[in-house]
UniProtKB/TrEMBL annotation, chains A, B:
PANTHER family per the UniProt record, alphabetical: ALANINE RACEMASE (PTHR30146:SF155), LACI-RELATED TRANSCRIPTIONAL REPRESSOR (PTHR30146)
Keyword Transcription regulation belongs to the record: yes
The protein, known as: DNA-binding LacI/PurR family transcriptional regulator
Tree of life domain: Bacteria
Length: 342, 342
């Protein structure tokens, strides 16, 4: 009896087509992310080798899944108040549209709910992959997504996102640059109004703020953690401006809080930037629409969303996607920063 | 030969359970929108009558579709700049979450692309129903959605939305109220900065503005149509303030353009409200974060989105959903409106 012929596997097809096994699987599952030419090459290789995918697996896969998932863990009311997410989503959509893909969007109450949702989306073939945001220390999504095998891109610092492919901004460097700039203008009492400390990136910014202040010998660092809404930024600004040692400069974690801070200064009879310097973050159109215009750590949030989506399509295509940074938020001085009052 | 027994139909099941045929179909298709009790009553009625749904139809329907579609016809970049949609989507999400439903979001280039997309979503069982926005005169989605049989709720005036169930705001009345208020303060040169005239609701507001101005004998009505972005509002405001007969009051179609208008006034050395009154629309948190705060036609956009989603669930449940208004935007005077300079 002769030896049975070696069984042709997906690996052989991948090798012949010069692609990864993941790409072969994508082609046969009619998932997005491959060029027409690559798809054709894979089908040709499979025909030549007489290979076809496991039929029971294929019966589940007769339709391309053309949606990408995004779960956001914020109360619905707050989501509408935060310019960041709308710009981020608009950037994601700009890339999804090129791939005829839609965004499956869901608000969740906590990360455990998100883990369950991602499992349902993936098993129900509702998403081809997901974008994960707002990482915490010891985030339960890191091991859960790995177990699921759901293709995903994490938006967060690699120290928080484990083995997931991540796209991130260097918040620590940007905060340090902001503090150094205000210090160079002559400010010594600099305060920061930031996001909730449970969020990994708020923690990174907070630590960088404290260490840069200490490095510069400016040891009176005051920081207030809020929830990102304008009203909270206003409240935090009032608290700071009423404190015994009033800061002469305030750094905010987004721009709506900085706009609110400028209104609080006006309401308290303080001139910006003569009496008080304000430095915003993210730099949506808001910063250019106020008078004076707001200095900001500019962050192309739309471009960030687009890069995250492009990275997810690379992951879906079985390409070697690696974690990488988008450009660090850059200082854009405008009308709200100046030397402190003499 | 005796007559064959009358065939039991879905109509009999619906009658026995005391619900519509649509509700029976929902229960067997495992779609959202029914209470557990109703679902149970329907299954009990079907068991008692020995009815079961057509199997070939059911084989497509073995899984509840727990997503609702929303296509928006705006360039991605502009979407991120418009607070309206984020608040509207946050309101939709607040209701979807209660029903364990996600929002399938897609940007489209034009209405024909949206028609094709809705057909694909519906035939591919990616959505249980859709929310349609930004209606035009003679909108192609009205006949197309009817042909598809896709459950939908239209956001727009019934004059634009045909047979679709619609949820709408009475923009004509709100504009008239805004003009009457400014006229009551003594303004005679009132201008309006609005959205693109291709949008049905911009046309309605524009017509109401012109007719109310004429009614009050204020015949110098200037209107500029823009694309809703802050920069466009700033440009339109500069044009108006440089015109030979400068307006003493400006009504805006959203709030970001009004914020931009306030900055333009400051940049041109005009005091708000002493030299120039500004009246915003929608009234997101922005209007309360500027100094002076902005008077606005307040519109609970989050609540509007929530009501639209609730109406869609009523349609999905086969209830008798009827077109209805949400509360008319109401005048909220704040710090940006006053009598004109003497």
């Amino acid at each position: 009896m002769s030896a049975p012929p070696a069984r042709i596997t997906i690996k052989d097809v991948a090798a012949r087509a010069g692609v990864s096994k993941g790409a072969v699987s994508l082609a046969f599952n009619r998932r997005p992310g491959l060029s027409e030419a690559t798809r054709e090459r894979i089908f040709a290789a499979a025909r030549e080798l007489g290979w076809e995918p496991n039929l029971s697996a294929r019966s589940l896969s007769n339709q391309r899944v053309d949606a990408v998932g995004l779960a956001i863990c914020r109360p619905a009311r707050l989501l509408g108040l935060e310019p960041f997410y709308m710009e981020f989503i608009s950037g994601i959509e700009s890339v999804l549209t090129e791939h005829s893909c839609s965004l499956l969007l869901r608000l969740v109450r906590d990360l455990d709910e998100e883990v369950a949702l991602q499992a349902r989306w993936w098993r129900g073939r509702q998403v081809a992959g997901s974008i994960l945001v707002d990482f915490h220390e010891g985030d339960p999504r890191v091991p859960a997504l790995k177990d699921l095998g759901l293709p995903a891109v994490a938006v967060g610092h690699p120290s928080l996102t484990g083995d997931l492919v991540s796209v991130w901004t260097d918040d620590a460097t940007a905060v340090a640059q902001a503090v150094r700039y205000l210090a160079a203008l002559g400010h010594r009492r600099i305060a920061r109004v930031g996001g909730p400390l449970s969020l990994g990136h708020s923690g990174i910014r907070s630590a960088s703020f404290a260490s840069t202040m200490a490095e510069l010998g400016l040891d009176e660092a005051q920081q207030i953690a809020t929830g990102f809404a304008g009203e909270e930024g206003a409240r935090a600004t009032r608290t700071l401006l009423l404190s015994a040692r009033r800061p002469t400069a305030i750094l905010y974690d987004n721009d709506i809080m900085a706009v609110a801070g400028a209104a609080v200064a006006a309401e308290m009879g303080l001139s910006v930037p003569q009496d008080l310097s304000l430095l915003a973050w993210d730099d949506s159109q808001l910063c250019r629409l106020t008078h004076p215009t707001l200095s900001a750590m500019s962050h192309d949030v739309h471009g960030f969303g687009a890069e995250v989506a492009r990275t997810l399509f690379a992951v879906l295509a079985g390409e070697e996607a690696v974690s990488h940074q988008v450009p660090t938020p850059a200082l854009t001085p405008r009308g709200s920063t100046a030397p402190p009052p003499a």
